[in-house]
Design goal:
single chain, 217 residues, alpha+beta, Jelly Rolls, Arc Repressor Mutant, subunit A, 2 domains, 5-stranded antiparallel beta sheet, 3-stranded antiparallel beta sheet, 8 helices, 8 strands, 44% helix
Length: 217
């Protein structure tokens, strides 16, 4: 059985499309691997079978913002734009945990887009979903208060009541400066909502934190 059968989100495809895709070999990607950088030519369409890829944008000031994550069943909008529009990458993609991916070469991608309605529908649906998430990101960064974005981030990232991330990493996630995150976290800690440890934010009062996250909704 080829990898298509276990690819999350991949719809039923024609027999010829499955043969073409299954002929491609999945690749193991260690944590921390940089998959692409700004200015590089897009080589193919990335399908994530396992793991998590994060895509960042770096401004002229050097500040980074997390644009989106690619997990199984999701797409990389930078790759789709590059393959369909001929643009180079403008962001940087990093594997944030050990991952398994398949890179569909440009020629194969374009042929499947022409020949297989199921594959074409998968690409366009994933692209539309990703653009919608980018609009939500723009809304949060442009219009939501830092406290709201920080609280949402902590609740979304928590595992067992803990967020394992530095203040700098959280700043990238919510699109602000590390110093701003540190001040806001200190304020939450003084209120007894979180406790700060080295590289960890421990959530003590998730109910109040959720109220902070919902304050502008």
């Amino acid at each position: 059985m080829g990898w298509c059968a276990r690819a999350a989100g991949l719809p039923p495809l024609g027999a010829a499309a499955v043969v073409r895709l299954d002929a491609l070999s999945p690749v193991e990607v260690p944590e921390g691997t940089v998959l692409f950088r700004p200015g590089e030519t897009v080589k193919g369409f990335v399908i994530v079978l396992r793991g998590r890829i994060e895509v960042y944008l770096t401004g002229l000031s050097g500040r980074e913002i997390l644009l989106y994550e690619v997990t199984p069943g999701q797409s990389c909008v930078q790759s789709t734009l590059g393959l369909m529009g001929g643009e180079d990458y403008s962001g940087e993609a990093v594997a944030r945990e050990p991952s398994e991916i398949v890179l569909v070469p440009r020629d194969t991608f374009l042929r499947l887009m022409d020949d297989d309605p199921g594959f074409r529908g998968f690409v366009f649906a994933a692209f539309a979903a990703r653009l919608q998430s980018m609009m939500h990101l723009l809304d949060r960064v442009a219009f939501q208060r830092i406290e709201t974005r920080l609280a949402e981030c902590l609740l979304a990232r928590a595992e067992g009541g803990r967020v394992r991330a530095t203040h700098a990493e959280i700043a990238v996630m919510i699109g602000t400066a590390r110093e701003v995150v540190s001040r806001r976290l200190d304020a939450l800690a003084r209120r007894g909502i979180v406790a700060l440890e080295r590289g960890v934010v421990r959530i003590l009062d998730p109910e109040t934190l959720a109220e902070v996250a919902d304050a502008e909704k």
